[in-house]
């Protein structure tokens, strides 16, 4: 069972979509996918490439060509797959596909493996942020923030009041230096 990503939410990109776009640019391939394990299936979270919405069943065929979670280059070097690790588990899999046979090399596999670690950190951070509820601040914290803002405004005013006269004095000294002869 395969499910396609929910695209176009609120006009912004999800971390999965950003990763898929970056993988496509990194490998300069036709399509890039980010898939994650979902109970007894694989869920495709993002697809990047021309007409990604109409990729449909072709996406499932791409995933079926990957026998395990990689890293692997298969299908006459047209398909490349790398796991997305995080601590002691695999968060997903990055897949690149090119219609041209021989498109991917060992160097591409190495680049994608390196980026797989970065993608793992991005997805781990995104899952932590999505699980944490909106934080509410207590009265003491709000008073502390208010004091910090007041100190910041005070220091900005002080800096402004000190810098302006110093700039005026420096300008006057330069004018005097220019007006007086060098031997005076």
Question: What Rg do the Cα atoms give?
Answer: 28 Å
Number of β-strand runs: 6
Which regions have little confidence, pLDDT < 50, spanning 5+ residues?
1-11
Run of helices and strands: EHEEHEEEHH
Shape designation: elongated
Major sheet: arrangement of strands = 1-3-2-6-5-4
Distance between the termini: 91 Å
**Total DSSP helices:** 4
Main beta-sheet strand count, sense and barrel state: 6 strands, mixed
Summed over residues and divided by their number, the pLDDT gives a mean of 77
Quickly give the structural class. Answer: alpha+beta
Q: Give helix % range.
A: 40-55%
Percent of residues in β-strands: 15-25%
Furnish the topology, listing elements before pairings.
Layout: E1 2-3, H1 15-27, E2 31-38, E3 41-48, H2 57-64, E4 72-74, E5 79-86, E6 89-97, H3 106-131, H4 139-179
Helix pairs in contact: 1-3
Notes on the structure:
Helix content is 48%, strand content 21%. It has a six-stranded mixed β-sheet with strand order 1-3-2-6-5-4, sandwiched between helices. By secondary structure, it is α+β, with helices and mostly antiparallel strands. The protein is built from four helices and six strands; from the N terminus they run βαββαβββαα. The protein starts with a strand and ends in a 5-residue tail after the last helix. It is elongated.
